[in-house]
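Table S2 (continued). Query chain:
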Amino acid sequence: MKLLPNTKAVTLLELLIALTISSMIILSILGLDKFSRFHVITTDRRMTTQNEISYVVEHMVREINNAIGSASEPPVNVTSIAGHPAITVWVDYNKNGKRDAAPADRQIAYAYVGTPSYEMLYYADYTASSSANLTISRNVYMPAGFAPVVTDNYLGVNITGCWHPRKTKTTQDCGKNENPTVTLRTFIKMPSVSTH
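Corresponding output:
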């Protein structure tokens, strides 16, 4: 077939170049989409974990702020509950500004349950019932355990949360991009605790 002099045609080489450029554009858009989705998901997981750990720390600050005691009657004891690391704190339940025996004042407790549940438990009245508790988080991951530090009338706590500690193949999976961790450290002031 003879082409007319003014007829324009696409050669095979031009077609291959057009397909290559189109493929590169499509692959770039798909790569950008995957990159964006990965970072949006990771950021959402990190924020969710941070919110949950913030809730635990705020809960502890709110409750432990009512601690009452002195050097001879320490308000905070680092102990274990059912084999799990814990702290017990005497709180001024009747709000009279002095430490009284139970039930006027009571002990509260926080316990960290590691594998397999990764929970932080709160005992609102540990003095009366050492079995009644409330789970305040299911994503607490503390590889070093729960070891608060009491200094004068401050309680130092260090809480680490993991997006999904139960789905890890190994404990090292917490902290990776797909399963981020968040650590919050604070010193909780106990204004009704005398250091003398």
